[in-house]
Each structure stands twice: as structure tokens, then as C-alpha cells.
Amino acid sequence: MKDKKTTISTQFGAVPLALAAGAGAEAWHQIGWVIVGGMSFGTLFTLFVVPVVYLLLSGKHSGEHSDDSFAAEVG
Questions:
Q1: Tens of pLDDT, residues 40-51
Q2: pLDDT tens digit sequence for 7-50
């Protein structure tokens, strides 16, 4: 839960950069949107893509027998 709070606070902290006005605002806009977008993408990647890839690589998604369960059935 701590990481979630850190991500949210970082995103909200970068919003004023993304919405800045005045001298040099174009540079602040870019920095702010990179921070907000990067944190959002990283969070979604960690929550959804990594677990799916793990399931695909582990072979547990297709109902295949693992070595331990197969040995228990045979032995």
C-alpha cells in the first residue's frame, strides 16, 4: 500500500508542473507530463502486465500438471 500512496502523491505533485503558466512554462509542461505519464504507465505495467507475463511463463494458466502433482499421481 505504501508504494501506491507514493505513486499517487508523486503524480499529484507533478500536476502543477504540467499545468504551469508563465515564463518557461513550456519546459515545465514537458517535465510534468513526463513524470505523470511515466508514473501512470509504470504503475499499470506493474499491476497488470507483469502478473500476466508471470502466469504465461509459469504455465499455471492452462491447467497443465506441475512436476510435483504429476509425481504424486504416478507414485
A1: 999 889 889 999
A2: 889 889 999 988 989 888 988 999 999 999 999 999 889 889 99
The string of DSSP letters for 7-72 reads: HHHHHHHHHHHHT--STTHHHHHHHHHHHHHHHHHHHHIIIIIHHHHHHHHHTGGGTPPPHHHHHH
Cα dist. 14→24, 49, 60 in Å? 16, 25, 40
Calpha distance 40→10 (Å, rounded): 10
Cα(48)–Cα(7) distance, integer angstroms: 16
Q: How many CB atoms lie within 10 A of CB 14?
A: 20
pTM over 0.70: no
